[in-house]
């Protein structure tokens, strides 16, 4: 570990994992998928409808998000349900979207409405608006 990394308090593995998270979030479909999952777990077909993409494409994005440990799965019969891995990912997505609202408006929607950051699995009030 070099002196600059040691001073910052991050080891190389932490930095590389953080970069991978940002890399996964650098795709509009993946951000939309994670935003849809803020309200709780959903199957691929429902996610495809919500983001307006074909199910095979959504499955490929979800597989990448799963490998990057941003989502996890639960199998029920022949259906696979996806959910956000943890509250940190949920907060990261919420903060990124809210930051984008600040860049686009002097009065972002999340300041005009009750707070929209919600615990994983709780219904997300903005979910349908994105």
Number of helices: 7
Helix/strand structural class: mainly alpha
The counted number of beta strands is: 3
Low-pLDDT parts are: none
How does the overall form come out from the CA principal axes? globular
- Percentage beta strand: 5-15%
Intertermini distance: 42 Å
Largest sheet entry: 3 strands, antiparallel
H/E order of the elements? HHHEHHEEHH
What is the average per-residue confidence, as pLDDT, rounded to a whole number?
84
How much helix, percentage-wise, in residues? 55-70%
The main sheet orders its strands as 1-3-2
Rg, Cα atoms, Å: 16 Å
Describe the structure.
The radius of gyration is 16 Å and the shape is globular. The chain has a 3-stranded antiparallel sheet with strand order 1-3-2. It has 7 helices and 3 strands, in the order H-H-H-E-H-H-E-E-H-H. The chain has helices at residues 3-8, 12-24, 28-37, 44-51, 55-67, 87-104, 109-112; strands at 42-43, 71-76, 79-84. By secondary structure, the chain is mostly helical.
What's the topology here?
Blueprint: H1 3-8, H2 12-24, H3 28-37, E1 42-43, H4 44-51, H5 55-67, E2 71-76, E3 79-84, H6 87-104, H7 109-112
Antiparallel strand pairs: 1-3, 2-3
Features:
130 residues; three-stranded antiparallel β-sheet
How would you sum up this structure in a few lines?
The protein has 130 residues and is mainly α. The chain is built from 7 helices and 3 strands. A 3-stranded antiparallel β-sheet has the order 1-3-2.
């Amino acid at each position: 570990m070099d002196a600059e990394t040691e001073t910052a308090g991050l080891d190389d593995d932490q930095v590389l994992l953080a970069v991978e998270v940002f890399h996964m979030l650098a795709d509009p479909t993946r951000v939309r998928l994670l935003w849809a999952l803020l309200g709780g777990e959903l199957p691929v077909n429902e996610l495809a409808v919500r983001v307006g993409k074909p199910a095979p494409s959504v499955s490929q994005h979800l597989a990448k998000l799963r490998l990057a440990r941003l989502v996890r799965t639960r199998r029920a019969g022949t259906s696979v349900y996806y959910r956000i891995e943890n509250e940190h990912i949920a907060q990261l997505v919420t903060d990124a979207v809210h930051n984008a609202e600040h860049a686009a408006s002097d009065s972002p929607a999340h300041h005009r409405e009750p707070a929209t950051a919600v615990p994983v699995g709780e219904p997300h009030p903005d979910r349908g608006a994105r």
